[in-house]
User: Which sequence fits this backbone?
């Protein structure tokens, strides 16, 4: 999980949305273990 990447991107970009989804999936994986 590298949430720092998202700070370099514009909030409305498709890449930002994609990374947001990846971060959410990553958090879920961490919660499940």
Assistant:
């Amino acid at each position: 999980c590298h949430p720092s990447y998202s700070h370099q991107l514009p909030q409305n970009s498709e890449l930002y949305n994609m990374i947001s989804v990846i971060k959410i999936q990553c958090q879920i994986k961490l919660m499940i273990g």
In short: The mean pLDDT is 77. Residues 14-32 form the longest helix (19 residues). The chain has one domain: 3-32.
